[in-house]
Write a structure and sequence with these properties.
Belongs to the anaerobic coproporphyrinogen-III oxidase family. HemW subfamily. This protein is of the alpha/beta class. It has 15 helices and 16 strands. β9 and β10 form a beta hairpin. α2 packs parallel to α4, α7 packs parallel to α9 and α12 packs antiparallel against α13.
Length: about 375
């Protein structure tokens, strides 16, 4: 397959938030002084230029502005970043350009500006559709404000998505089914539905350890997962990845780049990338601290602090780990080509027998609905 036909994504990380959510362990930072957006836009452009010199000749098929909270950026800053990408790489005509946004009324007023700058898909961090849950999750918006922002997104963009978190404290399967139905009425084509996980180093972790935050037990969490699958299937948004649901053809093309093991550039503080240079896969990561990243870029053209060369085994394991998250599964021949050895047929036979995976007539391997809740164990078994 020629280079031009392969997907190539560019991920751009805007690291700033108005406040830090108590469940979040992403690279996000709160700054009380004004952010020098012009300086950051110049640094993004510089790092894009340097990265394009390392990976020339690519055709960008998707761009994702994530964070942090990218909807705190002025539309002009977004426009400058998109212009820099277009200057240093070729961009396909139907490129998917996603921007993550908080559904506050202030940020929703910028949607028309983002559209004019070149964004054609927005992903809204709604997280819950009731006010008590939003307050408990440390969100800055109300349920009404979130739904109003979704309506503005619908008017501004052909494609939009939003996130919800489930397995929240005191949430029952019946409550979640009602919330999901309301979400699907509003969602049009795509939903990201994440089970609340308690991450070390977050305020929720401390509360959970102290017994002040109770999340649903394993049985309830499994029931909530099952309700998620059943409700979304019935209402036309089946899972195409373990936490992502879409109408056919409305999948997030950028995230498919990650899950299919394709190439992407990581730009901005704390961004990760996967680049093929001289036939070798490089796993890159940039300096996480925004101001330190800025100084690195201004002095040396990039903020990369990690540039690991993945060997064939590591590359194959990553392909397995990411690819089996997808409903479409993986082609075992690609695993063999990457690792130099086939998957163990005995292990495949055993997992099939247990109902965790299926293998179709073409040999494609997929995790079943009963295998998905124990996906990590399935991947570990196959990779052993």
């Amino acid at each position: 397959m020629s280079r031009a036909k392969e997907a190539f994504g560019v991920y751009v990380h805007w690291p700033f938030c108005l406040s830090k959510c108590p469940y979040c362990d992403f690279n996000s930072h709160v700054r009380h002084a004004a952010i020098d957006e012009t300086r950051f836009a110049s640094a993004f452009a510089r790092e894009i230029e340097t990265t394009a010199q390392r990976s020339p000749g690519r055709e960008v098929t998707s761009i994702f502005l994530g964070g942090g909270t990218p909807s705190l950026m002025q539309p002009a800053t977004v426009g400058a970043v998109l212009d820099a990408i277009g200057k240093h790489w070729k961009v396909v005509n139907d490129v998917e350009v996603t921007l993550e946004a908080n559904p506050t009324s202030v940020e929703a007023t910028r949607f028309a500006g983002y559209r004019a700058a070149g964004v054609n898909r927005v992903s809204l961090g709604v997280q819950a559709l009731d006010d008590a849950s939003l307050k408990a999750l440390g969100r800055m918006h109300s349920a009404r404000e979130a739904l109003d922002a979704v309506a503005i997104a619908r008017r501004s963009f052909d494609r939009y998505s939003f996130d919800l978190i489930y397995a929240r404290p005191d949430q029952t399967p019946a409550m979640w089914a009602d919330e999901l139905r309301l979400a699907i009425d509003e969602a049009a084509e795509h939903l990201s539905l994440y089970q609340l996980t308690i991450e070390e180093g977050t305020p929720f972790f401390g509360l959970h350890q102290a017994g002040k935050l109770k999340t649903p037990d394993e049985a309830v969490a499994r029931a909530l997962y099952d309700v998620t699958q059943e409700t979304c299937d019935k209402l036309g948004l089946p899972a195409y990845e373990i936490s992502n649901h879409a109408r056919r053809g409305a999948e997030c093309r950028h995230n498919l780049v990650y899950w299919r093991g394709e190439e992407y550039a990581g730009i901005g503080p704390g961004a990760h990338g996967r680049l093929d240079i001289d036939g070798i896969r490089h796993a890159t990561a940039t300096e996480k601290r925004p101001e330190a990243w800025l100084m690195r870029v201004e002095s040396s053209g990039h903020g990369v602090v990690t540039d690991d060369l993945l060997n064939s085994e590591e590359r194959a394991d990553e392909f397995l780990l990411m690819g089996l998250r997808l409903a479409e599964g993986i082609d075992p021949d690609r695993y063999t080509a990457l690792s130099g050895r086939p998957l163990d047929p005995k292990r495949i036979a055993l997992l099939r027998e247990e109902g965790a995976i299926t293998v179709d007539a073409t040999g494609r391997l997929r995790v079943t609905s009963s295998g998905f809740p124990v996906l990590d164990a399935v991947v570990a078994d196959l990779a052993a």
